[in-house]
Amino acid sequence: MMDGKALDNVASLAWFAPELAVTAALLLVVLADLVPSLRAGRAAPAFAAIGLACALLAVFFYYVEFAVARHGGGGAAGGGLPHLQQILSGELGGATPPVDIFAGAEGVGRNRFGLLRVDPFALFFKMLILVSLLLVVGFSWHHRGIRRYGDGEYYALLLASALGLLLMASATDLLMVYLSIEMVSLPSYALSGFFRRDRKSSEAGLKYVLYGAVASAVMIYGLSLLYGLTGTLSLQEIPSRLRGTLSFAPGLLGQTPALSLATLFILGGFAFKIAAFPFHTWCPDVYEGAPTPVTAFLSVAPKVAGFAVMLRFLSMAFPDPAARDAVNPNWPAFLTVAAVLTMTWGNLAALGQTNVKRLLAYSAIAHAGYLLMGVVTVSSGMADAPREQGEAVIRVGREAVLFYLVAYAFMDLGAFFAVIVIADRLGVEDLDGYRGLGWRAPAVAAAMTIFLLSLIGLPPMVGFVGKLLLFKAVIEARLFWLAVVGVLNSVISLYYYVKVIRAMYLEGVPADGQTVPALPVPKFATFLLYAMAVPTVWLGVSFGRLYELVRYSLTGIAY
Q1: pLDDT at 434 over 70
Q2: DSSP string spanning 58-122?
Q3: What would the pLDDT profile of 37-84 be if each residue is shown by its tens digit?
C-alpha cells in the first residue's frame, strides 16, 4: 500500500486508525457519562487519555511504516525501530510516496487523489497534536471547575475537537479542509464558554462564536471562488487546472484578481485558527475567560493544525514559485504584512498586561507572527532566483516552521500549566499573586522561568534554536528587513516576560530570618511541569535529532 496510489473507502480504513481510536474514545466518554457509577469514578478522563494514547501509538506505527517502506523493507513492525533510528541520525532521506485515502473507486473520478493524505508530514503534525492533547487531559484531570460542571461533556467536546484536528493535518480536499476546521471550531466554542455560570467564560464563548462565524463565512466564500475557477476540490489538481485556464485564455485579466481574492479569503480562515492579524481580536478575551486548560488547548493544538493545513494548501495548490508568481503576485505580500502586524501587535499589547493569562494570550498572537515569517519564505519562493535555490529556501522555511511548532508546544503548554497550578493553589491570575513565588513554590517558579526564557528566545532553551532557524530562513529568502522586525519584536517581548520573573524572585522577598509558608503543589502537577520543562531545555542543547525528524517529515511533500 506504499506505492502512493489512492485507496478506496474500505482499504482506507487501514490508515484511519488514529481517527477511529479518537471516535471510539468519544463514544465511550458519552456512554460513561450516562452511568452514575462510571461518572463518579472519573471514567471520562480515563477513556479520553486511553483513546488519545492509542491514537498516538497508531500514528507512531504508521510513521515507522513509512520509514520501512522508504528503505525498501516489507513493513514488518520488528524492523521499524532501526529505521526510526536512521531517521533521527539523518541517514534516511528521500521522498516517501504518500497514501491518499477515501478516494471512492480507486483512481476513478474527480476524487482519485483522495480526501485525506497519509504521509510523514501529516503524521508529524498528528503526533504533536496528540501529545499536546494528552498533556491538556493531564492539566484537566484534577481541575475543580471542570469536575463541577461535568467531566463527560468536557472530554467529549475535547475529543470531538481532536478528531477535527487530526483531519486538518491530512486534508487534501477543499471541502474536507473546511469541514475539518469547523469540526475543531464548534466544540471549541462550547469549551471556551464551559463555565456556564461564570460571566467571563460565557462572554468568551459568545465572542468566539461571533468571530468564528465571520471567519468561517469568509473562508467558505474563498473556497467556493477557488472551486469555481478550477472546477475541482482536490488540492493536487488545482495547479494543472490553473495552468489549463491560463493557456486557453492568455492575458485573461479577470482570472488573477479573482484568484487573488479567493486565496486571501482562504488564508483569512487559516489566520483565524492561528490567531493572526487581522483575525486575532478574539484571542485575548477568549483566552482570559475560558477555563485555563481550555486556554492551553486553544493556544497550541488549533495553531499547530492551522499551520499544517496552511502549509499543505500552499505546497499542493501553488507548488511552483515561478508559476505562482505569474498566476497570483499579491498573496505572498499579504502573508508578509500579516506576519509583521501580528508579531508587533501581540508584543506591544502584552506590555501593559497584569493578568498573566491575558499576557500569554498576546504572547500567543506574537508567536503566530514569528511562525508566519517561516510561511512567508514558503509562499515567496524567490521566483526570480534559480529553481534549485528557490526550492532550498522553501525547504528551510518549512523546516523552521515545524521545528518552532514543537518548541512552542512545550514552552507554551508549560507556561499555561504553571498558571493553572498557581490559580488552583492561590485563586489568582494577576501578576500580584506571583510575588515571592520563588520562595513559596520554588519548583513551579523554576519551571515557569524556563518556559518564559524559552518564549523570549534565550539560550540554551529550545525557543532560541527555533527562532534562530526562523531568522535563518528569512535571511536566506533575502527578506532582511523582516528579520530585523522579528529581532526587534523579540527584544520588546523581553520586557513583559521578565516582568513575571521579576515578580516571582525580586518582589515579595522575605526579610532576613523570616520564613514564608510553602505553597503545597501536588506531586502529579510537579511531574507534568517538569515533563515539559526538561524537553524545553534538553531540545535546546541537543536539537539535532528533532531537526532530522523534521527534515524527514517533510519528505514527499511537493517542493
Answers
A1: yes
A2: HHHHHHHHHHHHHHT----GGGHHHHHHHHHTT---S----EEE--SSTT-STTTT-SEEESHHH
A3: 777 667 889 999 999 999 999 999 998 888 776 655 544 344 455 556
CA distances from 154 to 149, 179, 372, 413 (A): 8, 21, 31, 19
Domain boundaries along the sequence of the chain: 330-559
Tell me: pLDDT of 172 over 60.
yes
β-strand partners of 117:
100
In contact, 487 and 498? CB cutoff 8 Å: no
Distance CA(240)–CA(397), nearest Å, equals 25
Is residue 117 helix, strand or coil? Answer: strand
Would you call the peptide bond into 291 cis, given omega within 30 degrees of 0 as the criterion? no
Contacting residues for 285 by C-beta, under 8 A, at least 6 apart: 203, 204, 207
Cell, residue 45: 478522563
Is residue 163 within 8 Å of residue 179, measured between CB atoms? no
Q: How many residues can be counted in the chain? A: 559
As a whole number of Å, the end-to-end CA separation of the chain is 23
Question: Given its phi and psi angles, is residue 275 left (phi above 0), alpha (psi -120 to 50 degrees) or beta?
Answer: left
At 196, the amino acid letter reads R
Q: Is the pLDDT of residue 150 over 80?
A: no
Q: Which of 98, 131, 41 is nearest to 410 (CA)?
A: 131
Conformational region of residue 430, where left means phi above 0, alpha means psi within -120 to 50, and beta covers everything else: beta
Average pLDDT in the 221-236 region? 89
Please state the φ and ψ torsions of residue 290, each to the nearest 5 degrees: -70, 155
Rounded CA separation 403/543 (Å): 9
